[in-house]
Structure formats: structure tokens, C-alpha cells
Design brief:
This protein is an all-alpha fold and 135 residues long. The chain is built from 5 helices and 2 strands, in the order αααααββ. It has helices at residues 2-10, 12-20, 22-46, 48-70, 76-112, and strands spanning 125-126, 129-130. A hairpin with a 2-residue loop joins β1 (125-126) and β2.
């Protein structure tokens, strides 16, 4: 940033604006820090998908508030694009969840869980020797 925008950063107006209202600068930095901490908490407890979903919802709310508060114009094309992107993300997550469920069912369906455990039937066979149940 310093390399490309030094003239803008060096302007005295910017320094006076920051020093003239230090509470605003402090509040912005504090809220930015808290937003990052909250994001880390969401990732830790809910996963990256939850963070991405919440981010999409937050962006929708921010856009709606900007339109309501400032009268920013929003084209049908922009609304359609955001809707398609959000819906595509939801479909992608659904497909990933189904693929994970199918993979788990394939593993458990091969005798690693359920009725195949220790009952003499099923089991994974490796080199002709049953690892679970049976042999």
C-alpha cells in the first residue's frame, strides 16, 4: 500500500482526520479485531462452511441496508447474480454433504459398523484373512 498510494497516505488531510477523531479510529480497529476473533470462533466450532454461509447472509444484509439507508441503486442483474451465487453455494454444499454421507455409508456398509461387527459375518477381508468377525 505504501509503495503505490504513498501520495494519498502522505496527504495531511488523512492524518488530521484520524487524529481529529481518535475514537472512530479506535472503534473501527476494535470492531475489526472482534470480527476476526468471532470468525475464528465460528470456524473452530461450526466449520468453514458455516463461516462462509454466515458471510453470504451478512453480505445480503449489508447490501439491503445500503440500499435502504443510502438509496444505492441495485440492478436486477446484480440481484440475480448474488442469488445465483448464493444458490450455487448451497447446492455445492448439499452435493458435498451427500457425497460424504455416501462415502460413510460405503465404509459402514462393508462391515466396519452395524451388524457386521463381531458377529461372524461381513468384515473387511485383506489377503484372505477377515479383519472383523468371521475368520
Amino acid at each position: 500500500v505504501y509503495l503505490f498510494e504513498w501520495d494519498g497516505l502522505d496527504a495531511q488531510l488523512h492524518g488530521r482526520a484520524a487524529l481529529g477523531n481518535p475514537f472512530s479510529l479506535l472503534a473501527t480497529g476494535t470492531f475489526g479485531f472482534l470480527a476476526n476473533v468471532a470468525g475464528l470462533g465460528v470456524v473452530q466450532h461450526g466449520g468453514a462452511v458455516t463461516l462462509t454461509t454466515l458471510s453470504l447472509l451478512k453480505n445480503g444484509v449489508v447490501i439491503a441496508l445500503a440500499v435502504a439507508a443510502y438509496g444505492d441503486p441495485v440492478t436486477v442483474r446484480a440481484v440475480a447474480g448474488y442469488t445465483v451465487a448464493t444458490y450455487g453455494f448451497v447446492l455445492y454444499q448439499e452435493a458435498r454433504a451427500k457425497a460424504a454421507a455416501a462415502a460413510a455409508a460405503a465404509v459402514f456398509g462393508n462391515g466396519l459398523g452395524g451388524a457386521g461387527m463381531g458377529g461372524g459375518g461381513g468384515g473387511i477381508v485383506e489377503g484372505g484373512v477377515g479383519l472383523v468377525g468371521g475368520n
